[in-house]
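Morning. Coffee machine broken again, so started the prediction first thing and wrote up yesterday's gels while waiting. Chain of 325 residues, entered below exactly as on the submission form.
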Amino acid sequence: MSEIKSDKAAPPWAAVFSRQRGALLAELISRAQALPPIRMGVVHPCDRPSLEGALAARDKGLIVPTLVGPCKKMEAAAREAGVSLDDIDIVEAPHSHAAADQAVELVRRGRLHAIMKGALHTDEMMAAVVRDGAGLRTDRRISHVFVIDAPTYHKLLFVTDAAINIAPTLEIKRDIVRNAVDLAHAIGIALPKVAILSAVETVEAKIPSTVEAAALCKMADRGQIAGALLDGPLAFDNAISKEAAEAKHIVSEVAGDPDILVAPDLESGNILAKQLVFLAGAHTAGVVLGARVPIVLTSRADDVGSRVASSALAQLFAHRARPKP
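Came back before lunch.
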C-alpha cells in the first residue's frame, strides 16, 4: 500500500516545543524578585519537599517565611534536607490542625501577607481559612487558579477551578472568573481573554455548562464581570486553536488566544491541568484566591520549582491587593 501524503501543514497542537520548558514561569519569578518579599506563613512544613520549597522561595527573595508547626518535626525535616532553620521565625503548634489555625490567626493580626500549605491535608488547611469567624473570608467565593507554562502554547495559560469547587453554580463561576482575572491583572495582563469551556460551542439546554457559559458572557456585557474579554461556550479545540474555531465558523477574539480557561467543574479542570503537565511538558504554579490573602496550595507531587513559582504568584498578587499607605 502506498503512503498517503498530505499537503496540509501540521496543526499547531502537533508543534514541537517552541521554547525551553518553564521559561515563562522563570520570567515571572524574575519579575517578582524586583519587588519586596512578603511575609508568608508556611503551615506544618514537616517534610522535606515543603520545607525545601519554602526556603528556596526565601532564597529567591520572594518571601520571608514563618514556619508554623511542631518544632521537633520541622527540625527533623530540616536535618533530612540538610538545611538550617537559623534566623527563621518559628511559631510552635502541636499538630497540623493547630498550625493551620495559628497561621490564620497571624493573618488576622496582620503579621502575614500569604499562607503556604505544607505537609497537611488540603481539607485541614482550607477548613481553618473558611471557618466562620476566622476572618479570612471575603464576599468572593474561594477558588484555585493553575498558571501553566506549556511550551507548545505561546503564553502562560490559566486553568480554573481545578482544586476547590467541585460542581460550581453560575454564581460561583462568576467569582471563579473574577478571581482569575484579578490574578491576570496582578501579573500584568491588562485585558485577559477568558474562554468558558464546555463540550460544544453552542448553547444546549441539555448541557448546563453551555447555558452557564453564555450567562457569564452576558454578565461581562452588563459589567458584573469587569476587566476581561469573555467568550463561551467554547470546546477546548475551539478555545485553543484559531484554525479549529474558523473551521466551525466561530468568530471570536478569544479563540486561539485565551489567557484563562474556565472549566465546567473540578474534575474536568483537574484532568486538563494534569494532561498539560504529563502530555505537553508543562510546568505549573498555582494559588488560591478569594480569601483575605493568597494561599499557595501545594501538592505532594509539586517540585521545588513549582513551589517557588507559586510563591511568586502569591507575592505579585499580595503586592497588588494590599492597600497603599
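The longest helix spans residues 304-321. Going to sketch it on the whiteboard this afternoon.
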